[in-house]
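Worked Example 4.2. Consider the chain below.
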Amino acid sequence: MATKIAQSADVDPAATIGDGTTIWHLAQVREDAVVGENCIIGRGAYVGEGVEMGDNCKLQNYSLVYEPAKLADGVFIGPAVVLTNDLRPRAINPDGSLKSGTDWDHVGVTIHEGAAVGARAVCVAPVTIGAWAMVAAGAVVTKDVPAYGLVAGVPARQIGWVGEAGAKLEQNDSGTWRCPVTGTEYEEVDHALRRASN
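Applying the procedure from the previous section yields the following structure tokens:
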């Protein structure tokens, strides 16, 4: 499948873009960013210098993915999401001089396979979002999210579990969890979720 880049997009020649990826109008992909195969980068989205994205990721319109974020395969980033990269943001140093790129330490957000971050959520680096987790729209994530975790609020707190289909899991009488869409069973062990062994 051919790669498609809108004429108004700004893709640095030093970026690596995988086959089948589509980059829409006014998006920017900075130098040394690596975008996997079959990704979609929406209108006005920003992919920072050296950001790593796996295959089949979706960055919706106006999402901002600042370096050094790392997104695994199948990650969904909703409209206007922000992945930050500075623990102590300042425009100037204590002496009043303008900060430069060498005056601060970049910290990144890491998002594992299949996870989704809802519209206008903010992930404050450095946090890790576990595989297949879901961050609700408008949440502010300041702590790591476990695999399959469902978090919401400001600051984000875990309010349940989601399965790989994205539906909130329902607890069975036996204490296991079941996806209402696929019927897949999950078990909770030491505050972590995994597929149930049959």
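The first strand starts at residue 4 and ends at 5. The CA atoms of residues 53 and 119 lie 19 Å apart. Compare this with Example 4.1 before moving on.
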